[in-house]
């Protein structure tokens, strides 16, 4: 399932008020909105309020049958949250800038582009991990994700000692890098 299909499924779930969809939207987007608010004169409560208001806007759009999502869901949420935060900043008169000057305070295009590039990189890495096959996938996950020691990995994967497990991990890492960079060069 690609990102667009997932985003559309999440919107449908939100429209039906399914808790799984709401939770996933929250987990995937709250920190991004929180960072936006905290980096622009807000606090944690402001971030929670802005995210909640963004979710309400998104819900109202999701239940509208004419609404079409023309970008990634995270981009839409970021845009809504940004507009809501700018409006709130104006109301609170925290800063004495005109609306046109906010582009200097919040470099949105750079943030969104950076966020999307990072997301694309994560997807490529996820794809490379899928393609690498076993036992490399499990070995790399054991070391990098589960933070297991090489001796523990050697026992788990039936290597004669930790040095052999370390050598195999290195070979798997080289294969993973080749798979990753074969795709990564296309997003540069």
Task: Classify the oligomer.
Answer: single chain
Strand content: under 5%
| SSE order, one letter for each helix or strand | HHHHHHHHH
**Tally of contiguous helical segments:** 9
Total domain count: 2
Structural class: mainly alpha
The helix content is over 70%
Calculate Rg over CA atoms. 22 Å
Give start-end ranges of low-pLDDT stretches.
none
Large-scale geometry: elongated
Instruction: Give a short account of the largest sheet.
Output: none
Textual characterization of the structure:
By secondary structure, the chain is an all-alpha fold. The chain folds into 2 domains: 1-106; 108-188. The protein is 75% helix and 0% strand. It has helices spanning 3-15, 19-38, 44-62, 73-92, 102-105, 108-132, 136-145, 150-156, 162-184. Helix 1 packs across helix 2 (19-38), helix 1 packs across helix 3 (44-62) and helix 6 (108-132) crosses helix 9 (162-184). The chain is elongated, with a radius of gyration of 22 Å.
Per-chain topology:
Layout: H1 3-15, H2 19-38, H3 44-62, H4 73-92, H5 102-105, H6 108-132, H7 136-145, H8 150-156, H9 162-184
Helix pairs in contact: 1-2, 1-3, 2-3, 2-4, 3-4, 6-9, 7-9, 8-9
């Amino acid at each position: 399932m690609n990102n667009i299909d997932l985003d559309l499924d999440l919107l449908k779930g939100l429209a039906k008020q399914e808790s799984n969809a709401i939770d996933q939207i929250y987990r995937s987007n709250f920190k991004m909105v929180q960072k936006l608010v905290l980096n622009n004169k807000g606090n944690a409560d402001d971030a929670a309020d802005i995210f909640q208001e963004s979710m309400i806007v998104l819900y109202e759009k999701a239940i509208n049958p004419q609404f079409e999502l023309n970008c990634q869901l995270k981009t839409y949420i970021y845009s809504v949250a940004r507009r809501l935060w700018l409006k709130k900043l104006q109301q609170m008169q925290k800063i004495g800038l005109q609306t046109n000057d906010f582009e200097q305070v919040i470099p949105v295009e750079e943030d969104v582009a950076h966020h999307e590039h990072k997301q694309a990189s994560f997807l490529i890495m996820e794809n490379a991990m899928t393609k690498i096959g076993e036992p490399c996938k499990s070995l790399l996950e054991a070391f990098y994700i589960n933070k297991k020691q090489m001796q523990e990995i050697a026992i788990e994967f039936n290597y004669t000692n930790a040095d052999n497990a370390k050598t195999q991990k290195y070979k798997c890492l080289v294969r993973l890098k080749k798979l990753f960079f074969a795709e990564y060069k296309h997003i540069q």
